[in-house]
Amino acid sequence: HPIHLKDYRPPEFLIDRVELRFELDPECTRVEARLALRRNPAATRGDGHLRLHGEHLKLTQVAIDGHVLTPAEYRVDGEGLTLHRVPDRFTLETWVEIHPGLNTALEGLYQSGDLLCTQCEAEGFRRITYFLDRPDVMARYTTTLIADRTRFPVLLSNGNPVARAELPDGRHSVTWEDPFPKPSYLFALVAGDLSVIEDGFVTASGRNVKLQIFVEPHNLDKGAHAMRSLKKAMRWDEERFGREYDLDIYMIVAVSHFNMGAMENKGLNVFNDKFVLARPDTATDADFDGIESVIAHEYFHNWTGNRITCRDWFQLSLKEGFTVYRDQEFTSDVGSRAVKRIRDVRTLRAHQFPEDAGPLAHPVRPDSYIEINNFYTTTVYDKGAEVVRMQAALLGPETFRRATDLYFERHDGQAVTTEDFVRCMEGASGRDLTQFRRWYEQAGTPELHIRGEYDATAGAYTLSVCQQTPATPGQPIKQPFHIPLAIGLLGADGRDLPVWLAGESAPPALGTRLLELTEPEHRFTFTGLSERPVPSLLRGFSAPVRVHDDLSDADRMFLMAHDSDGFNRWDAAQTLHERLLLALTNDVAHPIPEDYIAACRRALCDMSADRALLAEVLSLPSETYLSDRMTVIDVDGLHRAHRQLTQHIGERLRDDLLAVYHANAETGDYVFSPEAIGRRALKNLALAYLMRAGDEEGLALCHAQLEAAHNMTDVMAALRLLAEQGGAEADAALDAFHRRWAGESLVLDKWFSVQASAPRPDALERVMALLKHPDYSARNPNRVRALVSTFSNVNQVRFHAADGAGYHFLVDRVLELDPVNPLLAARLLKPLVRWRRFDSERQTLMRAELERVLGRSELSSDVFEVVSKALA
Ligand code: ARG
Ligand code: ZN
């Protein structure tokens, strides 16, 4: 049953105070809740009944104002508790029993190893107690946790600890009080035998905050990077957004069973341990980066999400889009802005653009859903961040800061909408963003067609720009978007020329200029140009659109060498790689131009540039990304072309690649700095080209690196290349790695995923054998993702094998997991959703597998929604 935004009604009742008392036990936990309810003056009166959400709860008793109700006075069903006739203001008490040890869905209260922990967003709180489990009901919580002292010495919840007691029978209790009203999805508790890493932070206004990161005892040596990241994020949010932390303690707990990345529960973040734990020898540079940005993301939620929350789940991007924007800006400010932008756009193009072009396309603010868990999407998160970024660009930095100040001031303590956010942007800037709002309402990726024309006699250059957005499910006709288009013009010497619009009395300062598109078509004429400029379009990727331009390959090589915009240097190179790869896919004998190879060599040897940026410039687009650029995806052709071009570059640039490898070799201890990460990235890219070209010296270097490396970045780079090649040496290396890292769960995930991604002909057989490995567990989402998702999302050529065995394998896993963990099962299905993009044989096979899912009775709403929409 879909839920619609248009049906939103304010809650009939509000809850001011919540007192919870947990008697914790994995087999049977007793939860006593005392809720202070009152009629909402702002709501219309309903039928007199009060419905509370509740699922998988065993109700033992219910009382109103101290009077125990008889069964005739209430009704319980699978979705909740209905109270017939209630006063306008009353105290409700309920007593329920739950079973965390049997909760495999990892929503609500569940067991992870020896810990008990919670995940309540979006609708997990209703698996803990009866409640108005919706984000516009904000209450103050007091929580008492009671548990066995030896099994659960640490008892945590939101806010500050206010009381502790030792109880008879070996139990103890801790009471927590959270002074800030919050929606139920931000509730959390954790109980277990945890070690803690402690530090402190003094806020801008001089308050002391205790910082604690809780980990299982054997991980105590892997929390330092997370702690450093947290302090960096706290300082940055004060400086960039004027936001200070508001409680006396900030706690983070790392758990090994977690469906998503992490969760911003007030004062008590619960994290997938993958985004907390790192030591140079166990985690790669990408892992270190991931930790820094997820720690920052959850911290930033304290203002964008917690202090100001969402009115309803259609507004999810209000907190997620804005918070992703904030974490992206943080990473850009503490590292390289161009590299961060490149990585974010790479993700957007690889995941969000296909989502926007497929059967699950939805607006940043969706207008209906069946299962909200399916809407934690790249559209809501990443396109949502782009929509905030465009508003920041339209307003300019100072005005945008005034607008966010206004937002924080006006809406602190409230549950609001994306509309309220845009109104603050308008209020602070005086701009009319009526048309801009379409970014929240219309799905689909706009396409820009841009042509340039130079008039030598007039010294003028004209760009004509058309926008058009393809239809998406339920939205056949699109209105034009308000698009900020940042451009530059390059002269023959490679430098920026003034972007001087005809009619303006004087040229503007050199550099980038923001044009605004609002109509289906525009013409912009630039003046004062004594030569034909090369346009640098959509600098910094100023809008989430696809650009079709009329630049020549020579223009792109020029931009790749000279553009002052680092992002566009990369983007020019990407387009060159992409066009060549697609040409090779269609025709094996397509020539690989000399000037292309020369451009790659120039980039490779440009020692003045940021190494990380060069590594990005020289990385070919992935097969998965390229497949989105084909009308009918040619899986095998793309794979062959990719290998062909990689090998060609490896052979032609051999000596330079070897020189770059040696010049960037690791000396001394591991350092986590943008500079050192860039060196490792470029060195390992050089190694990859050499290995894939079958170079003997490359192979020797690869073995030597695997032997000698003392950091996981270099180990994994070498292991991945060996695993790709296969053979006895690869198997020996994999075995040795497994022995070395037995018991280190996050490292074992790497061992699984490196095998799942290797495009060897026997990849599926290996993956199926690994399902039976004693270290495999379908109960651990990280392990499932490492093996199953890596195979189906990364190993495109083997997953899409022509016999359909990959599809059958995936659907078996989905059906197995659906009764266990529906959220995870629904996510696994993603690679099958774009089935219409393949050739007719593969379409038939993929559709049959989707139908096999739909034929199963008792599907979860998560899986049902994905499959039914995919087939629609
Ligand atoms: N709010 C979390 C974040 O930081 C994501 C939690 C989503 N959980 C879920 N069950 N859908 O992005
Ligand atoms: Zn988030």
From TrEMBL:
Residues 226-439 form the Peptidase M1 membrane alanine aminopeptidase domain. GO terms for molecular function: alanyl aminopeptidase activity; metallopeptidase activity; zinc ion binding. The keyword Metal-binding applies. Residues 553-872 form the Peptidase M1 alanyl aminopeptidase C-terminal domain. GO terms for biological process: proteolysis. The keyword Hydrolase applies. Its EC number is 3.4.11.2. Residues 49-186 form the Aminopeptidase N-like N-terminal domain. Pfam families: DUF3458, DUF3458_C, Peptidase_M1, Peptidase_M1_N. Keywords: Aminopeptidase, Hydrolase, Metal-binding, Metalloprotease, Protease, Zinc. It catalyses: Release of an N-terminal amino acid, Xaa-|-Yaa- from a peptide, amide or arylamide. Xaa is preferably Ala, but may be most amino acids including Pro (slow action). When a terminal hydrophobic residue is followed by a prolyl residue, the two may be released as an intact Xaa-Pro dipeptide. Belongs to the peptidase M1 family. Aminopeptidase N is involved in the degradation of intracellular peptides generated by protein breakdown during normal growth as well as in response to nutrient starvation. This is Aminopeptidase N.
